[in-house]
């Protein structure tokens, strides 16, 4: 009996194309660099103008395009998808990484306008960008969606309702996309980082240290003590997982939340 042919597999005839948001620093930067190293052509976006400096050589070399702007802006999203498609002829993978940490306040004291902004960036913009990418992903031989979740999309944190709620929504969205897009051969997965050494995490640790009346170094040590591997993760640890999820090796993996957290278990 002949082996069944797996649909929507990457081919070697042309470079694959990915879109990565929030690519100027941290996990997005590491992911974009990893995918470029793997031979992808990449469409990049970030709110920070440092994006173009970080990828100047790739942009000049024709392997990347960059769009600087707020991913919550409809025009920025449209430009990112349109320019990526025009430059590289298609889109095979979408990595929804851009996010806002949100306001640090308990629910009783939340500023609702600030909450709406966090949900607009972390949830609405992800859905809207995915809508724009879906027609291109359906044309791909191996369409992939990777959404950036968080350890705190499942674990409650006092004062973290905006971020926790938004990442919980992303975890559920990923499963919905897996069901809806599976018949088109598109996989959808979440990567849920834990304590990762990024600029966003550094800001969080500084805030926590101040609130607890301890030094920043002491707070880092407290967090490491919660991790079975006894270290913080790096942006590259997360990028390695994203790279696998957009590769041919993950073709039968969909609707999953992949935790990259060194073995942290709560509850």
Notes on the structure:
It is a single chain. The chain is α/β, with parallel strands linked by helices. It is globular. It has helices at 26-37, 50-54, 56-60, 74-88, 112-139, 161-181, 199-212, 216-225, 235-245; strands at residues 17-21, 41-46, 64-68, 93-96, 144-148, 187-193, 257-260. It has a 7-stranded parallel β-sheet with strand order 3-2-1-4-5-6-7, sandwiched between helices. It has 2 domains: 17-194 and 235-258, 3-Layer(aba) Sandwich (Rossmann fold), CATH 3.40.50; 196-232, no CATH class. Residues 1-9 have low confidence and may be disordered. 40% of the residues are buried. It is built from 9 helices and 7 strands, in the order βαβααβαβαβαβαααβ.
Shape: globular
Strand content: 5-15%
- How is the main sheet built? 7 strands, parallel
Could you tell me the mean pLDDT? 92
Q: How far apart, in Å, are the first and last alpha carbons? A: 48 Å
Number of helices: 9
Label the CATH architecture of the largest domain. Answer: 3-Layer(aba) Sandwich
Number of domains: 2
